[in-house]
Input
Amino acid sequence: MLRLAMTTDAETFERVREPLADRGIEVGHVQAKERALRVSGGESGEAAAVDPEEFDGFDVGLVYPTRLMEGAVVDERLGVPWVNGRDAVVASRNKAGVLARLSAAGVPTPKTTLVSNPVDESVVVDAVEEFSYPVVVKPNSATRGVGVATATDLDSLLGVVDYLNLIHDYRATGDKSFLIQEYLPDARDYRAMVVDGACAGAVERELDDEALAAGRWKHNVHRGATARGVELEPEARDLAERAAAALGIDYLGVDLLATADRLVVNETNARPTVDAATKYADDFYDRFAALIRRTAEAE
Output
């Protein structure tokens, strides 16, 4: 049986274990963070012998660890190919980089400007002139909707930027950039799952009436939205597949925003959460397992 290493033991791990086992793939967890990891033993060859039972015996990894520093050590210990390797994870995490590549490939995206701190206030003022309020302000590399805000006027925008400046002033902060992005009111929010170049299903992320009445607008599941399985229109499926092809990522969550007259790719995620199988195409796990096997055999 093929052995698949996963560096998460959250929802995705529990959901994929049994369906992949039914297809001859045993899933095991490798802890990549919030622990101590021996880097070397001090003598030539000793490092490779550290924790052999934990890291040995795997044939392939699903997704490179989210923390790149720890990931380099875990990657060396495992010595396996990844369905989504380091390059895919780094590329997808850079929101501005993704949107730039997609735009160059002719994939529609929201109008977006990257601001790289530190900058004078005048740079922000000039950057927002081409937008209409409200605007969305978001950290360039955060996930799960962390730090994303809307600004309804210049004063509120500069207030959000002030808080970002406080964070970016800390020397150890790696990414000192943020995005100013057009706000698409009443947009429907979809997460399409692309597996090996083809859309394998999608969910619509929705807020309940109480949340909407309270002024909530972020559709992240981790922020209280629910994910409902939907059948995407052919245009939306094609757009998700074009986005994955432009980025060259085999296993990708593609976030789509749809209004009455526009359909755009908002973000991508190379470490997508796998939802319940009922929300995807009937052959989702067959295609998923085939991609895992092909990755293992390519090494």
In short: The chain has a mean pLDDT of 89. Residues 154-168 form the longest helix (15 residues). The chain has three domains: 2-90, 111-182, 185-280.
